């Protein structure tokens, strides 16, 4: 009996026990679905996060004050003094490296906008900014215009609103442009509407209301504001030079003493992206561990079923041995059956894992305001099938060896 005939015999045995084959394959499919589904979902979420960072651009960096205490050299340092308006304006005037610079501040991170009887939830971010804010932050206009120099110079009560704010207040029934809305006790004329941006931070970029910087300062009154400086270098190649120059200029503006640490922090857009990728890497390891444990349970179930199969087919094994089948051929048949069952379950698990993983990623991405896309993780799919074959070998080797060692005379007497 050659290998081809052994494969045919194994397939006939599988076809002859369809219910057992289906149930066994289903056990493997659930394990592979867990493995491929978790890893696919993580890849899909990572793609959504990457698309959110792409809106900022790889050549963008921000200068901010640390708002929490931090540890340096084993000692806890106090939080930085906020970057005030004069620090930000001085930096913008002194920095002359051809970089686009935007100065902004958040007046109220939980504001509520009103138009007539309609109002938003109190989760609107009221931001004061300049004419460069939209470009540097990666926003694009759906309709209307950006803030102009005239708006900024005179601190006019005009506003550019996010897509979610516009949808909530005007419900696509009224053109938002030139309408008057009320937020934080002041009335503003809508001059622009932003296109939907989304983001991994919960879609906050679509719940923004941008007003002129000086208008924001007047609205804040005695409230102490902290200003953020965001810069976009001419190209990625110029970013390191721009960051080095920015650090020197900001130390002069902030009067940081020589030998003392910076009283501010420079955040690079690509650093944030790399940090999220590192976190995602740990999630992949955890996901693989969870999926592997599930598969281990499935392999034990398959091992038990194959042992039952050996017991049920004792007489068949005795007949085959009496007709000249060698122990090697007996082992091959049972291994082939275990592997085929695992591959059938693996293919089903890969399809289910692909669909469920992408569904989870889509739901999470949309819930966080990001853009989900269908991900086909070929590496995880191939890994799933390879693991299936490994599970088949693991679960089939012992029953196959046990079957091959049966005494043909005793096997023929078995009832």
> What is the average of the pLDDT values?
80
The shape, in one word, is elongated
**Overall number of structural domains:** 2
Helix content: 55-70%
Question: How many H/I helices?
Answer: 13
Output the radius of gyration.
Answer: 32 Å
Structural class by SSE content: alpha+beta
End-to-end distance: 26 Å
| Topology order in helix (H) and strand (E) letters | HHEEEHEEEEHEHEHEEEHEHEHHHHH
Describe this structure in words.
The chain has helices at 3-16, 18-54, 85-94, 133-136, 149-154, 163-170, 213-220, 239-254, 269-312, 314-322, 327-367, 378-404, 408-413; strands at 60-64, 70-72, 75-77, 100-111, 113-115, 118-119, 124-129, 141-144, 158-161, 180-183, 186-194, 208-212, 227-232, 265-268. The protein has 415 residues and is an alpha+beta fold. Strands 1, 4, 5, 6, 7, 8, 9, 10, 11, 12, 13 and 14 form a twelve-stranded mixed sheet that branches. It has a two-stranded antiparallel ribbon with strand order 2-3. β5 and β6 form a beta hairpin. α2 packs antiparallel against α9 (269-312) and α2 packs parallel to α11. InterPro entries: ABC3_permease_C (IPR003838), MacB_PCD (IPR025857), Macrolide_Exporter_MacB (IPR050250). Residues 21-246 form the MacB-like periplasmic core domain. Keywords: Cell membrane, Membrane, Transmembrane, Transmembrane helix.
């Amino acid at each position: 009996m050659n290998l081809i005939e052994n494969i045919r015999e194994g397939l006939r045995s599988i076809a002859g026990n369809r219910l057992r084959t289906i149930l066994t394959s289903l056990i493997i499919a659930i394990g592979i679905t867990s493995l491929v589904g978790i890893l696919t979902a993580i890849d899909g979420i990572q793609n959504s996060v990457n698309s959110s960072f792409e809106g900022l651009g790889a050549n963008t960096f921000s200068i901010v004050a640390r708002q929490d205490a931090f540890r340096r050299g084993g000692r806890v340092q106090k939080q930085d003094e906020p970057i005030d308006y004069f620090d930000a304006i001085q930096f913008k005037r002194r920095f002359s490296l051809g970089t686009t610079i935007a100065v902004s501040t958040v007046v109220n991170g939980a504001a509520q906008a009103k138009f007539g009887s309609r109002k938003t939830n109190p989760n609107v971010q009221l931001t004061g900014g300049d004419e460069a804010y939209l470009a540097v932050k990666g926003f694009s206009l759906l309709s209307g215009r950006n803030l102009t120099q005239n708006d900024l110079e005179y601190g006019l009560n005009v506003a550019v609103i996010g897509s979610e704010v516009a949808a909530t207040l005007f419900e696509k029934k009224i053109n938002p442009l030139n309408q008057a809305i009320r937020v934080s006790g002041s009335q503003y004329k809508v001059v622009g509407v932003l296109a939907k941006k989304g983001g991994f931070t919960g879609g906050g970029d679509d719940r923004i209301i941008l007003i002129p910087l000086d208008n924001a300062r007047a609205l804040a009154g005695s409230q102490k504001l902290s200003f953020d400086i965001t810069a976009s270098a001419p190209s990625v190649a110029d970013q390191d030079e721009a960051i080095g120059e920015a650090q020197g200029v900001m130390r002069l503006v902030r009067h940081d003493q020589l030998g003392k640490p910076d009283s501010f922090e420079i955040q690079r857009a690509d650093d944030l992206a790399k940090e999220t990728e590192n976190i995602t890497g740990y999630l992949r390891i955890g996901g693989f561990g969870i999926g592997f444990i599930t598969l281990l349970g499935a392999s034990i179930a398959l091992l038990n079923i194959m042992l039952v199969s050996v017991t049920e087919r004792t007489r068949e094994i005795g007949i085959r041995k009496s007709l000249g089948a060698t122990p090697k051929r007996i082992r091959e048949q049972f291994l082939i059956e275990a592997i085929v069952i695992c591959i059938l379950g693996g293919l089903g698990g890969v399809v289910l894992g692909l669909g469920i993983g992408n569904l989870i990623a889509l739901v999470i991405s949309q819930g966080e305001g990001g853009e989900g896309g269908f991900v086909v993780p070929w590496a995880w799919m191939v890994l799933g099938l390879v693991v299936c074959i490994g599970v088949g070998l693991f679960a089939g080797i012992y029953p196959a060896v046990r079957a091959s060692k049966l005494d043909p005379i005793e096997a023929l007497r078995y009832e």
